[in-house]
Design brief:
Helix content is about 35%, strand content about 20%. The protein is of the alpha/beta class. The strands form three sheets. Strands 1-2-7-8-9 form a five-stranded antiparallel β-sheet, covered by helices on one side. α2 runs antiparallel to α5 and α5 crosses α6. It starts with 7 loop residues before the first helix and ends with a strand. About 25% of the residues are buried.
């Protein structure tokens, strides 16, 4: 009878299994640690981006507050209208600024603009009153025609907005905020949400340079509006609107009566529909950090020396390399 042979093959197989398990566990631990570092870095970058964009917003509010001191008009020649070119801020992200070098910290670039929201036609004018004013309907129809919007676009906007923002009943006091309709569509807060009314994204993109949706009805600033908006607002041709645009380049309009002098005799501009100053501004800040760009858009209402942030949104984008 042969003596039993040692189980060398089984022992070797057991050892290989143990090594494989240990290697798998070690790889999992390394992966978890790597992910934890990534999450921490992303949280730190998000916090830094938020503080930088908040600082840019505060800087814009200070510019608008300074501009409001003793200036009755707002025009495109003022400091707020000059865009901030992309500036590198990577060195400011380092903990020790004196030791910061080009190799330390991620690359961060900040840019931004301040735009006059009242330089566009405010769609909230379509919701004022129990009956739609004919001049407001005509203005919107002309703007839709200028951008080659699909037929019936103006009617869709009018019916949708008046259903979303119903006028108070006859004899009722004016509401302190937006009146919510029980059966109408949701109230859009911006142009992007006009898709709720049935508009497509392409039509909204065409209208965006010329219309805006603000919390309340506002006049159009003739010092900042493009000629297309002026022509539609005053029901004049583009050549007449261009005369106003060219005249304000040399000297900003001081009153709407001064703008009327560039038109036909006895032309009267309603003060409720046009002005030469503004209360609403859109502040856009863009922070490019490594392969990502974070954009913050804020709507500011200026009431004297008070700058109130009415709405704010942030958009994060992954840049192509």
């Amino acid at each position: 009878m042969r003596p039993p042979q040692p189980q060398r093959g089984a022992a070797l197989l057991t050892a290989m299994i143990i090594v494989t398990l240990i290697a798998s566990l070690a790889a999992g631990m390394v992966w978890q640690q790597y992910r934890a570092v990534q999450i921490e870095a992303a949280d730190r970058a998000r916090a830094q981006s938020g503080w930088m964009l908040q600082g840019a917003l505060d800087w814009a509010r200070l510019i608008l507050k300074t501009d409001a001191q003793g200036k009755p008009v707002d025009h495109l020649g003022e400091p707020w209208a000059v865009p901030l070119a992309e500036a590198r801020l990577s060195t400011f992200l380092a903990a020790d600024r004196t030791a910061a070098t080009d190799d330390e910290g991620p690359d961060a670039f900040l840019s931004g603009t301040i735009e006059d929201a009242q330089g566009r036609y405010n769609l909230r004018a379509l919701t004022a009153g129990a009956q739609l004013a004919p001049e407001e309907k005509l203005t919107l129809e002309q703007l839709c025609s200028q951008v080659n919007a699909p037929p019936g676009t103006a009617a869709v906007i009018v019916s949708g907005l008046r259903a979303a923002f119903p006028a108070p009943a006859s004899g009722a006091s004016a509401p302190t905020g937006n009146t919510i309709s029980d059966s109408g569509p949701l109230q859009p807060a911006g142009l992007d949400q006009l898709t709720w009314l049935g508009l497509d994204a392409d039509t909204i993109k065409r209208l965006q340079p010329y219309v805006v949706l603000l919390p309340k009805a506002t006049p159009v600033n003739l010092n900042t509006a493009p000629r297309e908006v002026i022509a539609a607002l005053l029901n004049i041709d583009l050549a007449s609107a261009e005369r106003i645009v060219q005249s304000r380049k040399g000297r900003p309009l001081q009153s709407i009566a001064e703008a009327a002098t560039f038109l036909s005799a006895n032309f009267v501009i309603p003060p409720t529909r046009a002005s030469v100053n503004s209360s609403f501004f859109v502040v856009t800040g863009r922070l490019r950090l490594d392969e990502r760009q974070l954009e913050q858009r804020s709507l500011i209402e200026r009431q004297g020396q008070t700058m109130a942030v009415v709405a704010r949104e942030r958009i994060s984008q992954l840049l192509d390399r």
